[in-house]
Structure formats: structure tokens, C-alpha cells
Write the C-alpha cells for this entry.
Amino acid sequence: MVWFFLAMLPVSTAWSQEISGFVRDSVGQPIAFASVVANSCPDDRVIGFGQSDALGKYRILLKSPCDSVTITARFFGYRPGRFSALSTSLPLSHDFALASEALQTVVIKGKSPPVVVRGDTTEYNVSSFADSTERSVEDLIRKLPGFSVNENGVIQYNGKMVERVLIEGDDVFGENYTMGTRNIRADMFSKVQVVDRFQDNPLMQGIRESDRMVLNLKINPDRKRALSGNVELGSGAGDEWKALARTNVFSISRKDKMYLIGNANNSGGDPLGWTEYQAEGGAMAVVRQQSLQSNPLPRQSLLRPNSLEDAELPWVHTQNNRSGLLYLGVVLPAKNGTKTTLSGWAGQTKLDQSAGNAQQYLLGADAFELLENKNALNSKTGYAVQAESSLFPKDSKQALRSFLKLSRKTTLAQTDLLRSQPNADPFRIGESAHETTDDGFLSFEYTYKNKSNQVLQLVSKTAFQQNKNNLNSAYAWYASYFQVDTSYRFLQQPTDQLRAQQLLMGSWLGSRKALKWSVDAGSSWYQASIRHKAALLTEQGENLPLGPQYANDFRLSTLRFFVLPALSWSHKAASFKTSAGLSWRPARLTVGTAVGNRVDVLAIEPRVEYRQSIGPNGTLVAHAELKQQMPDVLALAPAYAFTGYQTISSGLPIWVGQPSYFAVVSYQYLNRVQQSSWQIIVNHTNNPKRFGTRTQIDPFLTVNETIWPLQYQSYSVNSHAEHYFSPLRTRLKAGLGWTRTAQASAVNNDEPVRLLQNTTTAQIEGGTAFDGWINFLLTNQLMLNVGRFGNEKQAPQALMLFSQLQCNIKPAKTLDLKIFVYRLSNPNGGEQYKASYASDAAAYWRWPKQRATLFLSAVNLLNADRYARVFADALSEQTTFVRAVRPFFLIGLDKSF
Amino acid sequence: MARFQTYPFHLLFLLVLASTVQLNAQQDTTAIGKVLYFQTTSAGGDAHKNGVTALYFNAGRSLYVHLGAPKSDTSFSTPEFISATVHGDVEGFPILKLHAAQKMYCKGWCPPPSKELCVVTDTMDPIDWLIVPNEHKRFGQYNCRRATGRYRGRTYDVWYAEDLPVPSGPFKLGGLPGLILEAQSTDGVVKFEFMELTLSPSIAQAINIRSGVIPDLSLQEVNQTRQAFLKRQIEFAKSKGVEMTLTIQETIEVFSEN
């Protein structure tokens, strides 16, 4: 019996049967490459398959026993042919005659992966993170994991600042990319790419290491037409008539591209952002040196007008606006590798608000409270034209690029302030700061790369800047401070600043084995002057000049000859870089018509960096640097100048380098495929910060009468972690930071003491991917400030909690609801400011066939009265509050074309 | 004879010219369908080809193209200043499969002195697919079956559509009684995600490789030549006093010789 089963076993497991035949069409012509599949019945298993040959002959081996078999022959353009039979009666041969049918056009679309990583590029598929309630690109970017956008529209990705936003690889916005991210509709784009280590000169790729990061927006293929875009009109009511008109008109089907953006509204949208503050030096300036568009003259102004309050909220809640922008950008590609990008824009933003400040000074026996209520107006108007041309002949090792920018910016900052303080009746203060800045910038760059991968680059940059400003203020304490008649309570200070710089630089870069080197050398010529005079006035217009100590006619003229050799050596996953900048600066300082003093400064600025890769995703960086910061004309001007209605500064007329050093150790883990990162940074900075003196005119408290340079130190430890859980389509982000600053300062004319401030921040954020029917994003942030004045035991402190909830609901395919709720809580900020809520909501009803959307939005739904936040430094606890924008609603229509 | 010895480069040039041909082993090069996949691999040697890929097909042949691959050679340096060159191809490193002949042509690295890319032959090693019973997944109107099989060092889990009678799929996968619409290796290193399928008589893409040098070498022989070339480079560097190490990055295909 056992032998019987053993004998049967191989028979049953090795069961097989071959069937063959021909696949032909209905007229008997053979069909080559037809697919023939045998399925068992009734369980539909595949038990054999094959393909017909050039003569239409097929042969398949059925490998598994079953009750019955169905054999199907398939070929494109023919109906499938089927044949079924019991296994016991299965013939050895069967021919198929397939009936033809028209090949139907079929398109099936699947889902694109949400995140794609390729080299230094991380690509986000917009449809995986968007739910179509995003109006602008900025709205969209806020929803992408890893990104954060600040109140000015500046974008950061995993803690690194995004320097430019390109469209299809074209830099059409320059440094003020907020014009694009705030005004272009999000639905124009299908992909957002983050490009790290961006190099805009292809010949320098792999030669000059870049630390720049840019975003590249990829246009939705179905919007790449000769004419596409949208028009949006809305109207509504609040404490005044509200309206908006916005348009995007793009022409991008041909090789030349055109972008037109228009925006005019008084309903809470700043179309500009004014992000040119990126040019204000620091780490960005180092990065910008690698760019053709880097202007060596960052904007500087004598005046420091009060900025508007935002209480950490989107400024639609705190500021009334009247804004407008018209932008035109054109990309003209020509033959032989030339490309020209032209753009120009004109825009204006007018903002006003009611705000206030309660400041409690804690100086032992001097403790007192100061209250201020103010109405503030801030108006900015700007015009700019720029042109960038590049010539990259195909297969050539040479390149020529040029850039020209002309711009004008006018700002007006007005404050009407009512102040109450001890031992004085409440009194009004007025300040009006008006400023016009004209900029001109021209740069050329020639690059030559030889066969052995060495590069020679020549750069020329010429920049000019004229700044005219005027400060007018009304302040009752001028009379007692200057010991003049009390009717002299008005101040007038017109100022004229001129700056010009010419930079010529040559660079030689190359590599040999594990060694890379670069030598940048050149010279720059810099000329700057500041001229102003201050006078007190009476209401009747009587003029009293404040004398030569309040009038500057000062010029700084300097040459700079510099050489910056840099060397790097790498071994396996470690690299070491070092550089030492050497510069000689003969300078001439001239006051009035006198012959200026000549001063020579020789400066050495060494820098070392060690970098170690730990695993495929980890990087450890240690970096230390010594800098010799040279004072600019504003920091050197010897006479007193008003920077605000109650603050006077004077320079330190010594042309001397101020050494400052900083050291950073950081570790970053970044897995871009899994969207997971964490980072810890330890930072130490030591520098004198500024020069000269500053006096605050206040008869009850001279908060700072400080002579710089004084020691300034800061330590910080910051860490954050972020992870995107792909299967759950949710994200989680957490951050923790601590900063300690110590500064020596003189208060009330006493001896300098140490002013300490500790700031601790914690943040946690969680949310969904915004591709389902209900989505949310919840952010909680805590900030604790603790100050200390010398050895005083009493420590001013302030704790602020901030929460934000964004909830999107999609009850129907064509309907979206969006709700934002913000909660500000200041537990120790005084009873009346304990917690406040801001809220707004929007509904979108779409008509896909008409490509139109009806929208309804409401701001300040909870009818909040004011928002407050607290802050503390070594001297005081402060609660600033801002009156909430009155509730308003807006209804409008958006039509795409 | 002396003339050829005097001008060896001329002979080489003629050989290269003669071998730069159009691959027209089978005449019907008209595509009737196109599948877009999203190829992702953590294998460093092929990571630069990550991105959208396309498979153009008819019943007799198919062409797999890496649309996201670099179009030209690019050099880059890492923060550690390790320089590298990534080869690019205007055609997207195509893989041409002739289904009936069980032959493949792949475009890739070419032994020196050629500076062009080579089109080498490769065999369509039959994959012993195990078709998993009673497991189905829909891609639009197509009901797909699941199959698993091992190909060049990795086990793949795939979904194929019997109603698309083409024995092909992404990369070099194929041999099933229907088109593979999605595939991934069970070790998680390689993934081909379905993005889009188009069936139309008017797809403007010839199923062919348009450019490249055809050496008389198979893929495996080219790989061996490449390793020998790199070893020679290292020995040459050593003779000049430079220590170099050869690190072969992981690729989608794992050959036992590696």
C-alpha cells in the first residue's frame, strides 16, 4: 500500500499536459506575439501561459491538475478568444480565430509618489499635500513637510534659508521672491523642488562648493499654454468697504516665457513682503558672494523707525492695509546658448494699526510702569527693473554673464503716541520718518574652465546707493534736554547718505588628488558720505539749529586689497577646510572740508571647518571663525544723529577692525526619502556688535547711555526633529531651543553692568498631509524669557504660549472649508492680556467645468478686541498689545483660463 | 599593414562608425502603449536614474526609458569634497526588449577609448514567476494578478495585467502573460510605482535605440571590462605613488561576480 502511494506521488506532483495550436485572425492570417493563458476552473489559478510565434503558433504546458481549464488568447486590437474544457477531455491542440476590434484609446492615471529625492534635489508632488484651498504658492509651501515660512514670506527648509524661488529654472524674481510666492496661484504648479548646493553657473559645478538653497517650481503641464492664468475679484464689508482684484497671466508654451502678476486689495494681503533685508550681511552675505546678483552694498539707513506689531499672527489680524503690485517678467532665450531675463515691478503697501505697550521697569527702587498707546502708519513704495543675460556657448568652456538692477524704494513711518509715566501728565508724541533710497547695481562675470578642471573667474561689481531721509518729531522733553524754551518741542533732521563701491576680483580654483584649492584676490574701492543737521522748531516754525555736535558732514573713502586662499582636504567621509583672508585697507576719514586722516588697517580673518559624514544620513560639522568687522560710515560719523524721536547715536571716529569670533558645532540627520530629520546646533558668538554712543532722551530713565564697543556674548543650543509618517500621511515636528546673551551696558549713567537674557523656546507640531476629506495642522509654541540686571535678584520674566490650528474640511468634491484658530496666552502678562483668540475662515465652491471658484472668507470671526504678547529683558517686563482688525467678510469669484 | 599601425585611431574610428547603427531587428517599432512608472532605488550605483520612467510597447517589443536621468554628464562634489561624475544620456539609458527573440539591448558605460555610451546585448534570463492565486489589484479598468520571482539577486513582487498582453515590464522585468504595472523588490531597495497608462494608436515614440556604439560584448563582459579598467587605473595611480581604493556601488542588478 505504501509503495502504491509512493508510486502515485510523483505522478500527481509532476502532472503536466501540453496544448498547442495557432492564433489567427478572422480571415486566417497568423497573429504573432499573442498571449495565451490557461486558467483552472473554478478557482481561476494560472496554470500555464505562453506567446504565439511569428507564424502564430503557440504551445503551453499546463503544470497543475484541475477539474477544467479555460484557455484565453489575447492580442491588441482583437477581442479575446476563449476555450474551456474538462481536464479529462482536454484536446492536445486548439486554434483560436480572434475577431478584430478598434484599439480604444485608454488613459489611466495612478498616484505620483509624494516625495522624490534625486541627488541634491528633493521634489514634492503637490497633489499629495494640497487640498485645493491653497490660494498662493506660500499657502502651499506652508503645508509641505520640512518647510517653514516667516511673517515676511521668507522660506526655510529644514532650518536652512531658501535664497531664491525659480520658475521652471528661471530666476525671475531675484531676492524679492515673495512677489511670486504670495501672488501666484498654487494650482499653477504640479511640483515643488528644493535644490540644495545650487550653483547658477554650470561651469562652476563641482569646482566651487555652494551652500545656496533654492526652490524650483514646476508648472502644471496642462497650464503650459500660450495663455493661462486667472482673474480674481472680490468685495465685502467690515468697518469699511473691502475689495480685492488679483490676476496671474502666464504665457509659457513657447521657449520665451512671460509672467504678469497684478494685485490690489485692502483685505489683508501684502503682495510684496519686501524681503530685501536678506541683503543685510551676516551669513547670507557670505553665501551671496557666490551669486551674480549679490550686491556688495547692503541697504543701510540712519533711521530706526518703529515697526508694526503682529503679535505672532498673520498680519491680516493686526494691520489694515491698502496694497498693490504690478509685476512683469520675461524670459527671452536666444540662439547659441544665450538667455536674457527681464523683469520689472511697481508696488505699494500701506499699513496702519492701533497698538500699545505696557513696560514695567524693575530696577530696584527705580521700578515704575510706563504705558503707551499709539496709532502707527507704515507705507512703502517700490519700483525696480532688472536684467540678467547669460552666454553659455554649447560645448564651450567659457561663459559670460551680466546683471543690471535699478530700483527706488520710498518708506514713510508715522507714529502718534500717547504716553503715561510716573511724575508726568500723559502727553502726546509724534514721529514721522520719510526715506527714499535709489539703488543701481551692475555686475559682470567671466568664467573659463580648462581641460584639467581648473577654473579662472573674473568678477566686476559696481554699486551705487543714495539714501535721503527726513525725521520730523514732536516730543515735550526736547526743551529740558537741550535746555531751551519749552515751545521748542519739534525736531527736524534731514539726512543725505551716499555710498558707492567698485569690486574687481579674480578667482582661480582647481583640484589635485584629495586636495582642492581656491584663491580669490582683488580690490575694492568704497566711498561713503553722510550729511545731516538737526534743528528744533516751535509750532510757529521758529528754527533753532542744534549746533555742530548734531550735524554731520562726514566722508569715508577706502580701498581694500584682499587675497583669500582656501584649501580643503578630504579623506573618506571626513573633510577639513581652512581659509585665511588677508586684507589691507588704507582709509581716509574726512569731516567737513578739513583734510581727512589716513588710517591703514591690516586684517587677518582665519576660518577652519571640519565635517564628518556619519552613516548615509548624518553629518557632524565643527566650524570656527575670526572676523575683523570694519565700521561703516554710519558707525563712524562723529556727530550726534537722531535715529528716532528719542534716541541719539554718535559714531566712534576710529577706523579700527573690531575682532569678533564665533564657533558652531552641529549634527544633522536628514533622510529626505522618509522625510525624517533631526538637528542639534551649539553656537557661541563673541563680538562688540556696534560702535559709538547711544542716548535715550527721557528725564526719568536714561535706559542706555552706552559707549561701545562693549563685550557682547551669546550662547545657544537649538534642536529640532521632524518626521513624516508616509503610510499614515501625517507629520510630527518638535523643537527645543535655548539662547543666552550677555552684554555689558551702562544704565542711568552708572558703571557698565552685565545684562543677561535667557530665552527658552519649545515647539511641537502635528498634522495630516492635506490630501483627504478632513485635515488639520496643530502648532504649539512656548517662549520663556528671563532677564537679569547685574547681580539683582529680581529677574524680569515672561512666558508666552502660542497655538495655531488649521482645519480643512472637504464635505463634497466641489466644496472646501478652511478654518484657522490662533490662541495667544500670556500667563504672567497682566490680567487683561491673559489669553486672546484670532480666527478666520474661508469656503470655496468650485465649478470645474467653468474653471471657476466662488469664495467666501471672514476675518476675526470671534470678534476679538486685542491681541497681546509678553517679553522680558534684563531691565523690564513688557506687554505689547495690538488692537484687532475689525471683523470683515469678503465674497468673490476666481476664474481660471 | 604599416599604414594601419601608423593610424590606429583611424581604424578605431571606422569601427566605431560602422557599429553606430539603428537597432531594427524587428520591423514594427510603432508603440501602441506607454506606461509611466516612478522608479526609486536606494542602490547608489543607479540612484541617479531615480524618477519618472516610461515603457513604450507593442506586442513584439518594448523600450524602457529613464525620463528623469541626467541628459548629459555632470560632475559634482559632496560637502566632503569627494568629486564624482554621473553619466547622462539624451535617450535616458534605454533598455530595448525583443520579446520573441528573448533579447535585450541596454545602453550604458562603454570601455575606453570610446567616449560615447555603448549599447550592449543582454539575455532575457527567464524568471521563474510564481503567480499568487486569488490576489488581485485594480489599476483603473485592469484587474491585475500578483506574481513573485527572482531576477539577478533580488526577489520582486509584481502586479501584472492579463488584459494587456505584453510580456514586459519596468526595467528588465518581464516574461509574464501580461504587462507588469507595478513592481518592487522584497528587500525594499528597488521600487517601480505605477503612474500612468496610455493605450493609443498615435503614440509618437519609436521602440528603438537611436544612438550608441555597439561593441561585440555582452553586459556581463562589459561589467568585467569596466572592473578591469578601474583596477588598471588604480594600479597606474599606485605606480605614481597615489593610494586609491575601488568601491563598487550597489546597483539594481546584483551579479554574483560582484
